[in-house]
Amino acid sequence: MLDKVSNLDQINNGHNDIDRADHTITGAQSLLRTLLDCGVDVCFANPGTSEMHFVDALDSVDGMRCILGLFEGVVTGAADGYARMLDRPAATLLHLGPGLANGLSNLHNAGRAQSPIVNVIGDHATYHRSFDAPLTSDIEGAARPFSSWVRTSPNAESVATDTAVAVAAATSAPGRVASLILPANTAWSTVDSSTPTPRAHPNPPARPSDSVIESAAAILREGGSTALVLGGRATREAPLALAGKIAAATGADLLAQTHNPRISRGAGRVEVTRIPYPIAESVALLEKYDNLILVGAKAPIAFFAYPDRPSTLYPPSARIHELVRVDQDITYALDHLVDTLGAGSLGAAVADYGPPDMPSDGPLTGRTIGAVVSAMLPEEAIVVDESLTTGGSFFDDLRHSAPHDVLLSTGGSIGFAMPNAIGAAVACPDRKVIALESDGSGLYMPQALWTMARENLDITVLVFANNRYRILDNEMFNVGAHGAGPVASTLFDLTRPTIDWVSLAEGFGVAAVRTETVAELGDALRTAFAHSGPMVIQIPL
């Protein structure tokens, strides 16, 4: 738990937008003023009764963009996508314990992505809790496993300081989930409007010691088979360029951990090999390495335990050296290592532009879909990938396409792609967002489509509709269970009835089309990329 944040400064923000004869403001108004002064000006919200004073304050405190989500998992997933693109938090507004619970799956992903998020969670008035009303719950207890910082404001006077500390906690390296619980009477009670609004600055990330960097340099100079395993912000464009210099100087390979929050890819970017999800493939990739140098990453492990398969994916003889933790200054560590190796003048090898040839027509398969998307991908697109079994080749297919960023599932909680796409589109309105979504995963958060339509967000959603939880067929085999028989198979089957994504999307106000051939998919993508706004493309498989 992150308990302390340094450099809490008291400053007067000079807000003049609240005009009360008694010179007071509510706790909710104080919270909004503080969020805005701390740089948090977007709130993804699904409010209820306990949050009405926050909602009311939106009309008296200017500057907060509030975006409604019809389900709290959409709200928290959007905040995650926003944070991944801007490295600063949005707020969420959630309704008591059940509202928080609805959003926990994507808060789990956000925590694994090191995304800064400030949750504002309403609660019953402090004096009402003892009556055990139907919505009473242990909100702090529910929030703690999915938050790095949790606090309940006891009164209106404490709200501003608690809010500033929450923002500082969220923005402390490497990025954290902070949850501030606001009892209803804390929100409606008043405080002196002339009280200075606090602003908090997070602790800067620590730097690894010179000896740790020197040890990494010594390993790289030895000449054994070595790979840098990159995680956290190490897979962004600038740190990747530094890692590319190290590779050029030493011959080391560059690997990305399987589940990274954001990876810069495409023409002009340093290429990195993503460690595969399947155990056999990852073991085969890693078995040749004598040394693994961790750069904001953990030593590679399996996603699940399986009978007669290893939990660690690297050979027992491999030497593991942690250059820099994910909560430390990754760019500093790589830059210092470049200098130590004398690699500053070297050019890093980057991908050239040359996507796969786009087939003129034919059936849609994982390979042909990857070729079409790669050939047509707009420059600086944001690709949110939850394609699962269909998209096994997509990461490699896109390596020579136009420069782009890829957002990946980090915590394994299903239903992240469409909510993440919302946040990415709000954060970067000048960039095309493409969500690669499997149909089973998309059905966890279909309400995201409504928010896309309401905000007219520039998102193209490709839904890969095999009408089955296909990945579970694979997992039945992986865990050594018998193949899915007639009863077990019903738990993987998404027919009876089959979901019509075109009708579903149109019902939420999003234009949609069904494509069954390469040519139809190309036409649909041309239409989607030529216009601003959301579109769903259903691809039956």
Automatic annotation (TrEMBL):
Gene3D superfamilies: 3.40.50.970. InterPro entries: THDP-binding, Thiamin_PyroP_enz_TPP-bd_dom, TPP_enz, TPP_enzyme_TPP-bd. Its EC number is 2.2.1.6. One of its GO terms (molecular function) is magnesium ion binding. GO terms for biological process: branched-chain amino acid biosynthetic process. Belongs to the TPP enzyme family. This is acetolactate synthase. It comes from Gordonia jinhuaensis.
